[in-house]
Amino acid sequence: MLSKIQSASAAVLAGSRVTEGQVSLGSFVRISRNRRALWTGRIQQLRLRGGASRGASWAAAGQECVIAFDGFNDVQPGDVLEAFQLEPTT
Q: Whole-angstrom Cα distance, residue 8 to residue 10?
């Protein structure tokens, strides 16, 4: 995570850069600080940084984005975000 952004609606957003793979709206995310897992939950909102301020469904490696989480506001610059999908087993 690059920066902490306070929105007008009192939500805290994470200004982030995707380093590998992609991040998708609705994905699960694990937030770690100092190599300790703090929280696991879902991505509630995803927007690409730059020209487009509208919502996005995904961001790919190399892109910067703004992420809001479903029920977590204690993000800090330097936190590591790991997005993942859960696949059903048969």
A: 5
